[in-house]
Amino acid sequence: xxxxxxxxxxxxxxxxxxxxxxxxxxxxxxxxxxxxxxxxxxxxxxxxxxxxxxxxxxxxxxxxxxxxxxxxxxxxxxxxxxxxxxxxxxx
Length: 91
Prior knowledge:
This protein has 91 residues and is mainly α. The protein has helices at residues 2-22, 24-42, 44-48, 69-89; strands spanning 52-54, 61-63.
């Protein structure tokens, strides 16, 4: 529960930062970005549990085992924090 609350606060900071830098257009892109990150952080069971065909119609590959849930959640955090880290690095 704490992880979800902290990610919600960071997501709101991402949206505020996008408004500060790009205005309303930035907010639209940021909301989509944050929602995708929330899928990785909050609903890891769905994201990590996919097993089956992946790729294009002309080929692709077959996923044979589930992804580790902690790795999926960690990557969601990395992706969520990336815009804030980049902003403060190049401030």
